[in-house]
Amino acid sequence: MEPGVGSPCPRASLLVLRDAQTRGAPRRARTGSGRGSMAVVRVVGAGYACPMSSRTIRILDLFAGAGGLTAGFHEASDRFRSVAAVELDPAAAASYSATFAKTDVFTGPIQDWLARADMPADVDVVVGGPPCQGFSTLGKRDAADERNSLWRQYAEVLTRVRPGYFVVENVPAFGGSRQYQDFLAATRPGGFLEDYALERRVLNAADYGAPQVRKRTVAIGHRRDLEAPGFPEATHAPKAAEGLLPYRTVGDALLGVPAAPDMDGRFDEVRTRVGDRELPGAFSPRELHFSRRYQPISRKRFAAIPEGGSRADLPDELKAPCWRRHTTGSMDVMGRLRADRPSVTIRTEFFKPEKGRYLHPTEHRAITHYEAALLQGFPDSHRFIGSRTTIARQIGNAVPIPLGAAIARRLLEVL
């Protein structure tokens, strides 16, 4: 039975009527509101499968973003159900609500949620990735960054809801940070989390079927009276090997996607009220296949960069002065993806070729938001609300869905 059509999981988000099973152009539905071409209708056929098992596994999602980690859990099994989520950014929280309509989503700082909200009951698993900018290798790695202390709020939630298991996801540098060491120390005898054991590994999303190389620290905790889940075994490898599939590639992920972006007009047609504002959306990933305008010099540069190439392949007359002066450093700048390999890590500014290896393998443009969402593994049933920039941030900050699903399947073995 299709979610939202007489199913146990009705949907009532303000979304566009569309066929969630195809990548073709969505069907249009208009209102008689007199607001130009704006379309504001109720969703049909969107969202993740509702849990149908009598043994539902209840998830609490902290620092939830647009719901990438929860999406992985829901993809792994219909036994998982997100019952509550906390997210600071209003647009990301709205995307989460639009996708998981039955989840109680708190919009605001986790400190406010801890002070004002009732904790959800009978939580089985807590998941989340505290903001990583304070110790990311891409940032200034400021040890005093107040965002580094948000693990304490995560830990406080654990003491209140007492889940059997929890998952913390973050950048690889998190595992070597003082914050992780403090978290680990809290689980030792005498610590405020002494009833829990905690282990971590660095996992590569490509090893679990994501068409993207993305390494993340994953820490999994369990109550000491419960079985330790361990970590998921790799299912993919750079080349097919015994028991392992070859890495999924950019070409695999983008197969069938129109070469020319065909959703330029869609962004101005749909709005959802979020608080006291109306924001663009909600959009399916397919509706995010819109283009950007480029300067003539940029188009000349794109045309001169071969598949797998970068700014190093440009003739001097097309290089920026700083590129001519600096011939070392990152060669991913103005880089073109290869169709026969996984993509590089999809970050929040993937739509800017000058920020990394984000040129389409064959087209003379950056990848679109739709293509980035596919490289992250988002299914067409997910929904996004916000400006182009904020939606890009939601996509780039998400845990790749195949990685989240692999973690969830591992937990499923002990739940």
Can you walk me through this structure?
- The chain is an alpha/beta fold and 415 residues long.
- It has helices spanning 68-76, 90-99, 110-116, 150-161, 178-186, 250-253, 296-304, 321-325, 369-376, 388-397, 401-412; strands at 14-15, 41-42, 57-62, 80-87, 104-107, 125-128, 165-170, 196-204, 215-223, 236-237, 245-246, 271-274, 277-280.
- It has a seven-stranded mixed beta sheet. A two-stranded antiparallel sheet has the order 1-2.
- The longest helix has 12 residues, at 150-161.
- The chain is globular.
- The two termini are 26 Å apart.
Number of strands: 13
Uncertain runs: 1-46, 49-53
Largest sheet: 7 strands, mixed
Q: Largest sheet, order of strands side by side?
A: 5-4-3-6-7-9-8
Distance between the termini: 26 Å
The SSE order reads: EEEHEHEHEHEHEEEEHEEHHHHH
Overall residue-averaged pLDDT value:
86
Percent of residues in beta strands: 5-15%
